[in-house]
Amino acid sequence: MDANLKSLSDVDRKTFKRSVMVAHDASNTALVAKKREMHYYAAEVNADIEYRSQFKVKENVDGEEVDYTPNTLTESQYTDKFMKFNLHLMHNIATMQMYHTRGSMLRSKTRSSMRGGVGGNKQSMEELINGILYEAIIFDPAGAHKDEEQPAHMPVPFKKSFVKVTIRKSEFIELHSQINSTVAKGTEQGNAVEADNRLYDYLTVGKGKVRRRSDNDAQTEIVLTNSRAVNTIYVTHATVGSYVSNFEMYDTLQGVVSKQTQMTQNMLSQSDPPGGTAPRSTIALEEEINERNKVRSVTQQLFKHPVFKKAILFIGRTLSSNFYNSGMQRFRNFQKPDRCSTEVQYKYSMKGLFRLMPSQVNDDRKAVSDISFCYANSDIVAIGYGLFSFSSQHVPSTGDVFVWSIKNPGEPERAYYYKTPVTALCFSPYLPSLIAIGMYDGCVEVRDVADDTNMPIAVSQRSTSPGCSPVVAIRWLKQVGDDDAGEIDPFLSLSQDGSVTRFHLGKSPYLLGFTQMTLERIEGHPEGIHVPISPTMTVAANRHPQGLSLTTHPVDNDIYYILTDEGCIHKCSINYQHQYLEVLKCHDGAVNIMEFSPWSPRLFLTCGNDWYVRIWVDGITRPLIELLDDFQPIHWAKWSPINSTIIVSVNRNTCSIWDLRRNILKPMGKHDMDASYNTIAQFSNSGTVLVVGNERGNVLFEALNDMPFAPHFQYDEMEKAIYRAIGNDQELFIELKSIGFFGYPNKKAVRT
């Protein structure tokens, strides 16, 4: 190295030595930092190993405790050599980098002087630097202190043909848990999240953003505290049961009656004493009369108090359970038949549970016009009393709506009285406490059955709903747009004159209604069954057909169907107010009911005055199955909510139970209901009880007993029964095959 430096000048030689010293110091600093880093990592690894050594894994095997704790890895014999070699290697690399950087700087400065040679030496500066670098580096630092050679490690060959591994269940240790912030679209959780998002958008960026606000200053008041000496003992409240026998109640009532009789006799004796004595003064009599009036006013106030009303309600429920205990248990399905029982017989029978009989005012007999069960509470049913047949010779002058509870079949929970007959009502499936009521004079109102004040929420007015025809059907609609997420869902009202009105509930006490559709009579031959046109010319008295019923689509919220006296079904949309989507001729006469199957959004049934119950599928203009038994108009028909192949139909006198799997020529069960004519019927939410109303105002709760067990695959059984029934009609069979699957996704059931 010194020989190479002789060819340089004194200035360059000093500069080069100084650069070599700086590079050496820098390499030492980098080496020290690397050593510290490696020692830090080694200390951290040792701490982790020491922490893990505290855990012990033990398990009880055949009554003995066995230690399954993993052993730590032993240090290899080459570990120290490997660490030393890495330290020396890092030192040499750092020194080479410093020398090379410094030599490049010096080479740039002395290139001109070195090209001509220094002291006769023609060697270049690059060769000198390279010679210095490679002469100073020792590539084998461990050669100066070589250890004794270790014998080579020879692995022992594995001679077994298999490896036995025993896996045992260990204790579950949860290291990290994070709640999922996403849900699947289309599920109940997904619908709830979407509704929450729509409400948030409505309150932040939608119409709900514009809310009334007021700014006011407030100041914190002084908090007054009490000492322990003035604090009272905490009073605890508890609901406890008490027993009162019939004898005690009888004695109590007899005592009250005898006491009142005694007081009356005393008053009479004082007001007209015997023996010719002078009567009591007029002032004393007036005082007694005032006292009696005060007692009467206090009693009336007590009867009007909501707490007293609720107490009477609870007492009535308790007393009713003594008479209707067995019927209540059957309504709730407390005792279900055993599938494995050998005594089960399929008789399709019906058993009466109880009868709801309202009190008649002024002997004004009112028919049951409509029945609606609450969607949230299956024990609550609303019944409308008024006019059912518009051709009736006697029209009642008043109407009622009674809200009954199965807990007390003797008395209604709510009673609403009207000056006109009630013709239609319907509970809201979206806000279960709301009920819409239609009248004979065309008026519509909405009430909240949870409110004790008996005041309607909103009523219609002639300015927005000028129709005066009777309201025959009411159906609630689901909100479609996201802008109206905070408003109450609207509902449709069908009048007898063929007009459909859409009502909205707002902050006003009046319903906002506008005409949604006005029906026109059908000309020519529409699709559906063929009915020959009479050769004689007939002129209709009204150019609008008579509306009879209203049905909404189970999937499409904007689709609804109107049933008329022409036997046609008009498919309409809330987006089109002046035209129909489709018209289907279903019956030769009026069509009364249209109901979709709970297992298919495309399969539906209709019943009419031509004695038939017909089953249709959307997309085919011919009926799949026709059911005919009695030669009487059919008022009501519906699919069973719990069995996909059972249909129940009701006419004026009887109730028929059809089973498509067994027979389509005659009903499997046929039962006479009551002496009075039947009007309307409805299934309970459980699907095991049929509620039938008649013209006398009585409502019968009939339990469906000895019924076949519901199949496990409901849609498959329904599809097989339909294909079996139309097997002889090849054209219809091919058309139905071309439609393919016509059920809900995953073959589930949806309440209609």
Structure description:
- With 752 residues, the chain is α+β, with helices and mostly antiparallel strands.
- 28% of the residues lie in helices and 23% in strands.
- The protein contains 12 helices and 31 strands.
- The strands form 8 sheets. Strands 16-20-19-18-17 form a 5-stranded mixed β-sheet, with no helix packed on it. A 4-stranded antiparallel β-sheet has the order 3-31-30-29, with helices on one face. Strands 4-5-6-7 form a 4-stranded antiparallel β-sheet, with no helix packed on it.
- Strand 19 and strand 20 form a beta hairpin.
- Helix 2 runs antiparallel to helix 3 and helix 3 runs antiparallel to helix 5.
- The protein is extended and about 120 Å long.
Please estimate the helix content.
25-40%
Beta strand count: 31
Shape: extended
Q: If you compute it from the alpha carbons, what radius of gyration comes out, rounded to the nearest whole angstrom?
A: 47 Å
**Average pLDDT taken over every residue:** 79
Strand order of the largest sheet: 16-20-19-18-17
Which structural category fits the helices and strands? alpha+beta
What low-confidence regions span 5 or more consecutive residues with pLDDT below 50?
1-8, 104-147, 273-280
- DSSP strand content: 15-25%
Distance between the termini: 101 Å
Helix count from the secondary structure assignment = 12
Largest sheet: 5 strands, mixed
